[in-house]
Amino acid sequence: MDFDLSNEQSMIRDMVREFATAEIEPLAQEVDRTGRFPIETFRKMGKLGLLGLPIDEAYGGAGADTVSYALAVEEIGRACGSTGLSYAAHVSLGCGPLQAFGTVEQKETYLVPLARGEALGSFGLTEPSAGSDAGGTQTRAKRVDDAYFITGSKCYITNASYAKCVIVTAVTGEDSRGKKQIGAFIVPTDSDGFAILRTYEKMGLRGSDTTELAFDEVRIPLGNRLGSETEGFKQFLKTLDGGRISIGALSVGIARAAYEAALRYAKERVQFGHSLSKMQAIQFKLADMAMHLELARTAVLRAAWLKDQGRSFSKEAAMAKLFASETCVRTCDQAVQIHGGAGYVSDFPVERYFRDAKLMEIGEGTSEIQRLVIARQIGC
Amino acid sequence: MNVIVCMKQTFDTEAKITLTDGKINEEGVQWIINPYDEYAIEEALKIKEATEGTVTVVTIGPARVEEAVRTALAMGADDAVIVDDPAAFGDEFTAAEVLAAVIRTRTYDVILAGNQAVDDGSSQVAVRLAQLLDVPHVSTITKLTFDGAVAVAERDAEGDTEVVEVKLPALFTAQQGLNEPRYPSLLGIRKASKKPVEHVTVAGIGLAENAIAKRVAVTETFIPAQKGAGRILTGDTPERVRELVRELRQTSKVI
Ligand SMILES: Cc1cc2nc3c(=O)[nH]c(=O)nc-3n(C[C@H](O)[C@H](O)[C@H](O)COP(=O)(O)OP(=O)(O)OC[C@H]3O[C@@H](n4cnc5c(N)ncnc54)[C@H](O)[C@@H]3O)c2cc1C
Ligand SMILES: Cc1cc2nc3c(=O)[nH]c(=O)nc-3n(C[C@H](O)[C@H](O)[C@H](O)COP(=O)(O)OP(=O)(O)OC[C@H]3O[C@@H](n4cnc5c(N)ncnc54)[C@H](O)[C@@H]3O)c2cc1C
């Protein structure tokens, strides 16, 4: 057993930490207040190769491993949750399916620009009637000769305003038992009939781009189908397995920001003649935060390591995402508590962490869905 | 143009310095590239990019310095030499002799170094090195351009700017403001582990251990006393001067 990072992994972590502290963290408050998407940050990340971090070198990426990717997401998320979510969605949901299921031609056309940072990746699965239950998908892809016509809508889709294409799931037909068959399609955002209806106002992660999409007979050539007509379901389950590692890492990053802020504040703030950090009630909170953080990071990195080894990691990714996201919400809640009134007002960053944290328990499978996944894996 | 960069790995500038048995404690310390050397590396990379040359990093230090070397390689340096022989760990005199022995056998147009290391802060090594190699040097530069075999450097002269011309090869030490060091790119990091790093010993570069033994003996290392609150002297001028002299003699005992 070896818990040490390789030289390369620790260099990547250090580089991203330095970059995130100098270039991302200073924008975090403004991005949250205004809801502005910090596109300049993504240009800089593209130049450094971060946007193609785990993508094969042959397709414009840096070919680093999933452990390095998880470390990078943690560092970016620590600096700014919004930027962390946009980054994780770009890599795991935008690039991930193309890398895993794309043909050489699809990768050359669509993955290379994403890995080089020329556009952001986006993945549209969720619909008004299909959230946790993707079986409720109503968007349809109708085959006519060598093209598909896609009609329907998607909601809560990250990054679509900055994407050149969105990977979209749609019903292609029914099997002999009447079960929906779902395919995945690469939809260029300049296609006729594609529209971004709006971007949502959100509780947290306000500097990330969350959109509602509409498809009206959008014509997609056959060559833009990802895999076969019936593989969409299996594909996005796999995509989400990988995505869960990144949401786990993002949770660790936001939780770490909250914990570090709370520890600093507790050492400085004096009440009843002592710093808060000398009071056992506060010490216990901080000790729990530190412990949960350590365990969450270990779980996330282990799931990432399993993926790198080519081993199955669905259960571990679900466990890591579930534990890390619940740790994140609890840690941010306690960080606000330790700050007292200062934690509730926006002079301090912890109220932002608290708002950002909540999505961790919802996105890429809610906590309830993670428990369902784990239960299935342990044989229930 | 071929550039050699002298680099030192130092404590993180935010590290808390503690002593154990009169020695600086290295346990659990974060190590970084000396910040002034980062400017030197960046400048070297800019020269390389403009002239299609090479950048070689030379450093002295124990096994841990490999990490700093890999970072420099990830930023874009081509190769590196590490003198990790304890016989090379001495004072500024030792360091300059060792660097000179490594560099003398190489061809170079420019040597770059930081204007000082943030740990010992002596500002001596690079200047001594120039002397040993018999090349001109310009210290604390904030700008460097070339006109054929002549370099034009701007140096920080206590708030003013001095413009100096020197013939190449020459040595320059970097001051803050020279440039904005780049982050290593991901591909750079991935390539760094495959770039050549040569480990050399003092004997291997033709030096006798006793000839480069340190000349400075450290008699005591201590942490400066916590700075107390200041005191503003009152009264008329002669009174204040008397009080100041008394303080300097009796309280702080500096005279
Ligand atoms: C900021 C943001 C970004 C997002 N980005 C993307 C994106 O890029 N791409 C994308 O496709 N989607 C994205 N989503 C959508 C997200 O994945 C869904 O919101 C999430 O999967 C939950 O689906 P839902 O909102 O429809 O909730 P519902 O599925 O309606 O769930 C509501 C509640 O019911 C619970 N529940 C549902 N089914 C069960 C069950 N069987 N047993 C027990 N409890 C159950 C859930 O756990 C939840 O608590 C994003 C969402 C947000 C808020
Ligand atoms: C929106 C808002 C409205 C407000 N309105 C008013 C108002 O109208 N009038 C007014 O006077 N005040 C008002 N307040 C102030 C509020 O009452 C204080 O914020 C609150 O009493 C906590 O004090 P504090 O913020 O100084 O936190 P601190 O006292 O610094 O507490 C920080 C943390 O340390 C813990 N702690 C402190 N001492 C101990 C101890 N001995 N043992 C264990 N834990 C300890 C606290 O429980 C808390 O978790 C308001 C605050 C807010 C945020």
Automatic annotation (TrEMBL), chain A:
Which ranges carry the Acyl-CoA oxidase/dehydrogenase middle domain? 122-218
Among InterPro entries, the record links this protein to: Acyl-CoA_DH_CS (IPR006089), Acyl-CoA_Oxase/DH_mid-dom (IPR006091), Acyl-CoA_Oxase/DH_mid-dom_sf (IPR046373), AcylCo_DH-like_C (IPR036250), AcylCo_DH/oxidase_C (IPR009075), AcylCoA_DH/ox_N (IPR013786), AcylCoA_DH/ox_N_sf (IPR037069), AcylCoA_DH/oxidase_NM_dom_sf (IPR009100)
* Domain Acyl-CoA dehydrogenase/oxidase C-terminal residue range list: 231-378
Q: Which SUPFAM superfamilies match?
A: Acyl-CoA dehydrogenase C-terminal domain-like (SSF47203), Acyl-CoA dehydrogenase NM domain-like (SSF56645)
A Pfam family that the UniProt record links to this protein:
Acyl-CoA_dh_M
Which keywords, in A-to-Z order, does the entry hold? FAD, Flavoprotein, Oxidoreductase
Looking up PANTHER family in the UniProt record yields: ACYL-COA DEHYDROGENASE, ISOVALERYL-COA DEHYDROGENASE, MITOCHONDRIAL-RELATED
Protein's name in the database: Acyl-CoA dehydrogenase
Task: Specify the species.
Answer: Ferroacidibacillus organovorans
Automatic annotation (TrEMBL), chain B:
Q: What SMART domains does the record point to?
A: ETF
Identify one Gene Ontology CC term for this UniProt entry: cytosol
| Organism this protein belongs to | Ferroacidibacillus organovorans
Q: Read off the InterPro entries from this record.
A: ETF_a/b_N, ETF_b, ETF_beta_N, Rossmann-like_a/b/a_fold
* Subunit text: Heterodimer of an alpha and a beta subunit.
Q: Where is the Electron transfer flavoprotein alpha/beta-subunit N-terminal domain?
A: 21-209
- List keywords of the entry alphabetically: Electron transport, Transport
Pfam families documented for this protein: ETF
GO molecular-function term, one example from the UniProt record = electron transfer activity
Which family does the entry's similarity section mention?
Answer: Belongs to the ETF beta-subunit/FixA family.
Annotated protein name in UniProt: Electron transfer flavoprotein subunit beta
Domain of life, per UniProt, equals Bacteria
